[in-house]
Design a protein that fits this description.
Elements: E1 3-8, E2 13-20, E3 23-31, H1 36-50, E4 60-66, H2 70-87, E5 91-95, H3 96-107, E6 117-123, E7 128-134, E8 140-148, H4 155-158, E9 163-166, H5 168-172, H6 174-177, E10 183-186, H7 197-205
Parallel strand pairs: 1-4, 4-5, 6-9, 9-10
Antiparallel strand pairs: 1-2, 2-3, 6-7, 7-8
């Protein structure tokens, strides 16, 4: 039996869940800007209490590793690493974009016979997004990158396949993406720790753990401090 604490803080969503053998038992989440610093540790305490377990019954901690918000990732990963040290349990790192794709496919009950592709997008300022592309089985078709979106983006794929774009980055780029007929935009997807549950459980079963001392989030871009003039 594997009880895993799941932490999602890479985007505006601050989400925490407890899963047992990949099945989500409880969750607590809020989709609100800058909520991570004040809400994350409180949500962890609440889900542990609601699940009627103790910290010492947790077998591993899974954290969304990015790409995403620099501040959100830093808070989530430092919290996860601190708990792993204190409890002497392993750390699982989950791709934020892979979890988004898994969640979208599950929530929309996409048939495994579908030939469509799925492109989660996270806003990276201006017309740039963090994105990757997956098939219905979760196989990575295009690797994670920071990409500037225009009306010609992905045209070689969109000429042949339907692509579902979702996440706050996709919403921002709606006009550019919809210039191509096979593009579908969803504006309702919200990141959730629950989307990480089966991916985390699969990693746990094969001992795909991170080195807690040296693990760093996938930021993709340097953090830049803007000065007021």
């Amino acid at each position: 039996m594997a009880i895993i604490l799941l932490i999602e803080s890479a985007t505006k969503s601050c989400s925490v869940a407890i899963a047992q053998n990949g099945l989500v038992l409880v969750k607590k989440e809020i989709n609100e800007q800058n909520a991570h610093a004040t809400s994350l540790t409180l949500f962890i305490e609440e889900v542990i209490l609601e699940a009627k377990i103790t910290y010492h019954q947790i077998n591993a901690i899974a954290v969304s590793k990015g790409p995403g918000s620099y501040t959100g990732l830093r808070i989530g990963v430092s919290t996860a690493k601190g708990l792993c040290y204190a409890l002497n349990i392993p750390l699982l790192a989950i791709s934020t974009l892979e979890a988004m794709a898994k969640g979208f496919i599950t929530q929309n009950k996409i048939s495994q016979s579908s030939s469509a592709l799925f492109c989660p997008m996270i806003d990276a300022r201006r017309m740039e997004v963090y994105c990757a592309m997956y098939d219905v089985y979760g196989t990575e078709i295009l690797k994670t990158e920071a990409k500037i979106i225009d009306e010609h983006s992905f045209n070689d794929i969109l000429d042949k396949r339907i692509v579902h774009f979702f996440g706050d980055g996709a919403v921002k780029c709606t006009n550019a993406l919809l210039a191509q007929s096979n593009a579908s935009i969803s504006d309702s997807h919200i990141n959730s720790a629950t989307d990480m549950s089966m991916i985390a459980y699969s990693k746990f079963l094969i001992n795909d753990f991170e080195d807690v001392a040296y693990f760093e989030p996938l930021y993709l871009k340097e953090f830049i401090v803007l000065k007021k003039i």
